[in-house]
Specification:
- By secondary structure, the protein is an alpha/beta fold.
- It has 3 domains: 2-65 and 75-79, Arc Repressor Mutant, subunit A; 85-199 and 379-403, 2-Layer Sandwich (Nucleotidyltransferase, domain 5); 213-373, ATPase, nucleotide binding domain (Nucleotidyltransferase, domain 5), CATH 3.30.420.40.
- Helices cover 43% and strands 17% of the residues.
- The chain has helices at residues 2-11, 15-23, 30-37, 41-53, 121-139, 175-185, 197-208, 268-271, 274-280, 291-302, 307-331, 341-348, 350-360, 379-394, 396-403; strands at 57-59, 77-79, 85-92, 95-101, 107-110, 143-150, 154-155, 160-161, 192-196, 216-222, 227-233, 236-238, 335-339, 371-373.
- The strands form 4 sheets. It has a 5-stranded mixed sheet with strand order 5-4-3-6-9, sandwiched between helices. Strands 12-11-10-13-14 form a 5-stranded mixed sheet. The protein has a two-stranded antiparallel ribbon with strand order 1-2.
- Helix 1 crosses helix 4, helix 3 crosses helix 4 and helix 5 crosses helix 6.
- The protein starts with a helix and ends with a helix.
- This is ROK family protein.
- InterPro entries: ATPase_NBD, ROK, WH-like_DNA-bd_sf.
- Belongs to the ROK (NagC/XylR) family.
- Pfam families: ROK (PF00480).
């Protein structure tokens, strides 16, 4: 025991990096963990044992090799199935949803999508937290923190939603402070974090989905309304000096286009979102379901057979490709991932979109950037949970002791 503790003391600084490697699926075995951390097998074993004792990971008691593999078999590492969770919440133009998310980006439980009837952000967040607290009571799991995704740029360090254009909130709503207050009122003594929904989508996809392995990842996605973008640089979410980077929804792609809430005209935000597709196809929004669901349903049932839907899809792809090409020229990403309606447009005609981006971007003819669909369900919720998990990933012992 003394030797194990001595090894752990030497590897204390390795606990966080080790947990992040298991969390992101990059260390499926103790041998891989040893190599990735650059420590001895004994130290890696002590670190893995400590993370297991904290209820965060599992370590196979009997190592086994894969069929046909050579060399000494290694203990397999996994996420503890009954471990702690983060409370995650998302507010969007059509309502809200809450979820419990474990390590590995695994959604443990989620509420159905709910309508947010009140324009007062404090009331909406009270309902969000109430739904999340009920999930926690039912699951009986320890909560390490809470994260909130909102469809707005979130200014740092104050945590204010500067431009919730598609919510009936006044600009500058103090969402982080309101979220923290609602958590305390619900009897949840955990830290509350918040961020822009597309930023959090990119973070989740980079760690657990379509962006895994990318160094410079560009994410562009439609929400229930509007368009957002995010950038991950060298594994870290790039939010700029005040949390306001990558407002790509306000790139102009049609100077003669529709007015935008930002004061401009023909922005990606109004030319390539769900409402834009319905409008271009000559469809009026229906009373049932979100605009995003209606637009995706229209693509699924009307493309390519319906000429109006086919023409509308081509128009949106041309505009989206023009915007992506400009971003490629400026940011030089090594991968682009698309979410929301943009994912559906890519799946409808990937060749056309890639051709537009290649023809319009500076380096398009010498090497195209891979453009892939987002792959995670509820990726903004998973990203919100990542905010809550980050203190644990940074220092598991300190974070879990403080949350006890």
């Amino acid at each position: 025991m003394t030797h194990t503790r001595t090894r752990l003391d030497r590897g204390r600084n390795a606990l966080g990096p080790a947990l992040e490697l298991v969390h992101t699926g990059r260390a499926p075995t103790r041998a891989v963990l040893t190599s990735a951390l650059g420590v001895t097998r004994a130290t890696a074993g002590a670190v893995a044992s400590e993370l297991q004792s904290l209820g965060l990971i599992t370590v196979d008691s009997r190592p086994g090799g894969a069929p046909g593999s050579q060399g000494r078999p290694s203990h397999r590492l996994g996420i503890a199935g009954d471990g702690p969770v983060a409370l995650a919440a998302q507010v969007h133009a059509d309502g809200f949803r809450a979820a419990l998310v474990g390590l590995g980006g695994r959604i443990v439980a989620t509420t159905p999508g709910r309508t947010a009837p009140d324009a007062d952000p404090a009331q909406v967040l009270r309902e969000v937290v109430r739904a999340g607290a009920e999930l926690l009571r039912t699951a009986g799991r320890r909560c390490v923190g809470a994260g909130l995704a909102v469809p707005s740029a979130v200014a740092e360090p104050d945590g204010t939603a500067l431009n919730p254009h598609h919510l009936a909130w006044l600009p500058g709503a103090p969402v982080r402070a309101l979220f923290a207050s609602c958590l305390a009122d619900a009897g949840l003594p955990v830290a509350g974090h918040c961020g822009n929904d597309v930023n959090l989508t990119a973070l989740a996809e980079h760690r657990h989905g379509a962006g895994r392995g990318s160094r410079h990842l560009l994410c562009v996605a439609t929400g229930h309304r509007g368009v957002g973008g995010a950038l991950v640089l060298d594994g870290r979410l790039h939010t700029g000096s005040a949390g306001l980077a990558l407002e790509v929804g306000h790139l102009t792609v049609d100077p003669q286009g529709h007015p935008c809430s930002c004061g401009g005209r023909g922005c990606l935000d109004v030319e390539t979102d769900a409402l834009a597709l319905l409008r271009a196809a000559g469809r009026d929004p229906g009373p049932e379901g979100s605009l995003l669901d209606q637009a995706r349903d229209l693509l699924r049932t009307g493309y390519p057979g319906d000429p109006a839907v086919r023409a509308a899809t081509a128009t949106l792809i041309e505009r989206l490709g023009l915007g992506l090409a400009g971003l490629v020229n400026i940011l030089n990403p090594d991968r682009i991932i698309l979410g929301g309606l943009h994912r559906a447009l890519l799946e409808a005609d990937a060749a056309r979109l890639r051709t537009v981006v290649g023809a319009r971007s500076l380096w398009g003819r010498s090497g195209t950037v891979p453009i892939e669909p987002c792959t995670l369900d509820h990726n903004a919720l998973v990203g919100a949970a990542e905010l809550a998990w980050q203190p644990v990933l940074d220092d598991p012992l300190t974070a879990l002791t403080a949350a006890a």
